[in-house]
Fold this protein.
Amino acid sequence: MSTPILEISGVSKSFGAIKALTGIDFSLAPGEVHALCGENGAGKSTLMNIIAGVLQPDEGDIRISGERAVIANPAAAQRLGIALVHQEIALCPDATVAENIFMPAINTRRAPLMNFRTLQAEAQKVMDLLAPIPVRTKVGDLSISNQQLVEIAKALTLDCRVLILDEPTAALTEPEAQRLFAIVRELRSRGISIIYISHRMAEIFSLCDRVTVFRDGRYVATDEIAATSPDEIVRKMVGREIAQLYPDKLAADEAPGQPLLKVSNLSDGSRCFDVGLELRAGEILGIGGLIGSGRSEMAQTLCGLRPSASGDVEIDGKPVRISAYADAVKAGLVYLSEDRKGSGVFLDMSIAANVSALDLGKLTGKLGLLDRRAETAQATELAKRLGVRMAGVGAAVSTLSGGNQQKVAIAKQLSVGPRVMIMDEPTRGIDVGAKAEIHRLLRDLARRGVGIVVISSEMPELIGLCDRVLVVREGRVAGELVADELSEEAIIMLASGVSNSQNTKQQAQNVA
Amino acid sequence: MSPREAEAPIMTAQIKTEGQGARWNLARLGSMREAGLIVIILALCIAMSFASPHFLTWGNFRAMLMSFSIEGIVVVGMTILLIVGGIDLSVGSVVAFSMVVSGALFLAGLDPWTASLIGIAVSALIGAVMGFFVTVVGLNHFITSLAAMVIVRGLCLIVTKGTPLSLFTLPPAFKAIGQGSFQGVPYVIIIFVVVVAVFDFLLRRATAFRKVFYTGSNEKAAQYSGIRTKQVKFWVTVLSSTLAGFAGVIYMSRFGAATPTFGAGMELNIIAAAVIGGASLNGGSGTIFGAILGMALLSVVTSSLILLDISVYWQDMIKGCILLAAVSIDHLLHRRKA
């Protein structure tokens, strides 16, 4: 094989104490489409950001066409012919397509004035290679898929040799995705090398030449697509022992109690469709799925945090109407946000004030005054039960570690005596010790009859903690896995739409 | 066993008296700013008492108190609005409009008390309209109140055709609010102290105002706690305008006139006072006591400059520098902590 256009060897990167990449190797041949696979958090995005100059590696070599290269910043990456199309669109919505396409060129332009006529003519030339989008349109007026095409056009103007596409089909409809695939093939035929990050096996098998798998920040294997199978890739993505110890699950002879939560036909018309689920006392129900599959939106719709178009909800056998989150709280249904700092806690407020936020009425006296003594007592009590390590309940939440902040967020929910708790990524970004504590706490609550739903991106957490797991794909429940059926392979199969190995080839052909 | 009984021990937090130490900790953090301001104000007063024999007199203090008492009522509303993450540039215009509307109604034959109530109600209505644009239409407070500032000032000029209304016929009982005193203490100062005390207490203790802090600290998290943040923002906007309207009526009583151009530029002084007193433009923090201290500092500085015979042209520049210094010190202290 000829000299790789891009060769990575022994690259490591740490963020504080967390090792995101450990001795990664990766090589990209000229004119190939190379798939990069791995679970959420496997290190794909970190590596792409290193290649695109956004991050600097702690150690390791990057070679471009055989020569050692230091990619100090995104502009350096552009000069080397490396372009990254982010998963999230990073365009200026108020500027025209033409201005967006030539943003990097305008940035380095020396002349003081803009020549719009040439700019637009040049932009239209590039855009027409992809799709007939008028370049004088404002980017904000385009559909998401067309915005994605503008991103790619922008990458093409850099005269790039390496194009990185990070989950490009996540926001696309099927026909739009088809158009993108045609474009990717066209680019390959022009000799551009493409790194294609995706979770969708069907796409990978129809589009790519080789596939590299990462797991937990480490390189696992690179295979020719023709010589592997979706099953094998999934196995390589997962292939780890579950290291942490999880609390005991419900034993086979412990039948779960009466239904606590029953949901049917829940839809919001955009991100979740026709969702039905039942949760029984004593069990922990897991909800898995890829990022962007609509897991969180589903839970938020259920709790009245997003408007719903239809759906029936029963709590404790009684039908409830939920039009705002306050209704859900009143009915005993609470939601722990996945974004702890953004919407879970009030960082600059005291622990006590955080715990009482969900039900101020309980702490309010006749005159509308807050009983601060009761507030302090409640926070002290709950913080003690959950083992929050703190100076006192008067300390600001920002002074706590991530794990303890999360405990405060959970204490807030417990303060209302909930019947059902929906925990969205309850252990994201917290250390192993606190993680195990929270797992034990959730199991303990379940045993006491509180309904627990855990939404998680971490396979081991779903498998180790939950009695039953629903897998969500594109806003719908793709399947349910119970007891022995629970495995990472099974979850990924359902989440990425590979139902079994026989019809994968079939799907691959459908895509092609 | 039923799950409901089983959950009881962990779910219902027993209400006991504990954790005094922790609360003291929080109180100390919050009052550091206020203590600092008090020290600065006292230091300035002591220095001035040596520099000028007129400074440390009841007459001078009374003049200083009078000068910021009525503005102080407006500062109360502004501080609460800053805590929720908003801002109100229209307060100066609303003060004038409240004066002008009440004055015009009085001249049209209404008794001054009813006329004043209507003036305050109209001010509240202006707040409600701004609240509508902020919460329903979704504009931000800055732009909405900037527009209101200009529109309401225009209304003042339309109502009065640009000339001040002379209200020397106001009955003495009404004039007494702004001009009279009780046992030597002007009513204006008494009203100011009562308003400040009531709102300072409510802001610290009332559940409704706690929601203001939640909303300003992290609006998303407040929504995720079931707090209707739009309602909170709406009512705080109304409150700020209402207090401005109340201040306008007192000014009318004090001056016995309604001037359509009165209070132009007042909003900057008021925002500066609140910010010096610890309110953040990002919302989530601030106290009324602190804001009043900020107001007092600016007032002492003004008074000192006058007594020291420094040209009035220097006043604005020096006030601006104080604002910049206060905010910079605060920012640097916070950054070090984080």
User: Anything to note?
Assistant: Confidence is low (pLDDT under 50) at residues 500-512 of chain A. Residues 63 and 301 of chain A are 48 Å apart (CA to CA). The radius of gyration of chain A is 25 Å. Chain A touches chain B through 63 residues (CB under 8 Å).
